[in-house]
Prior knowledge:
alpha+beta; four-stranded antiparallel beta sheet; 8 helices
Amino acid sequence: MPELPEVEALAHHLRENAVGRTVTRIDVVSLSVLKTVTPQWTELHGRRVTGARRHGKHLDLDCDGLHLVVHLARAGWLRWSDSLPVKPPRPGRGPLSLRVHLSGEVGFDLTEAGTKKGLAVWIVADPGEVPGIARLGPDALELDRTRLGELLAGRTERLKTALTDQSLIAGIGNAYSDEILHTAKLSPYATPGRLSDEALDRLAAAIREVLTGAVERSVGQDAARLKGEKRSGLRVHGRAGLPCPVCGDTVREISFADKAFQYCPTCQTGGKPLADRRLSRLLK
């Protein structure tokens, strides 16, 4: 799933390549991707792109006051093209959901792999009209140690769950929460409201270090290379069975119905692996 660094990089790419161009046509290949009825997508035709930014994990293309807001979900992506085909695409079962043509015969496709569809597009006058944006907590890159402590105070869910709750902290998903917890040397099952001051210090520093580093690696990359760049920078996420690059212990995995997360026992749980993946709590 694209998270804060990748969406920030896509917004940067659009600022560099789309701002100043005019929307000449939008091809909606899958009507289900549109989550708003009015304004219609045709009202974007002829509008000049004036900005691109990120709200948490939402991408926002400002077309002279009318916003095309995108949430890429788990398997969605934005594919930029310097030469889009003129012929409208035919609706079908392929990955293409929506195509945006810009002046100069350039533009981008919104695609989504797999059968479980979550890619969503809104056309709104104000990004705050998008329910997911209206519910966002403070942006992860704008948190300082004091604010983080205030947000986590009294919370009893698992720390992994808290970090990925967009209404609490915006922008962190499954992959970067694994990386943040590994960097901070904290268990994914730690209780947020019981973290010591020293643990909160480490967590705040890890959030900034991991996300800032990922943004710096991602911004300026071609959109097609961002997924590979993300994978290359990960130390534990997606590396189950491989040695931890810090201590050499084997990276372990906890699996659920539709997702999994990874951690290092030596770095994060005192050398003890988490027991039964569905029933156990942290082994202290």
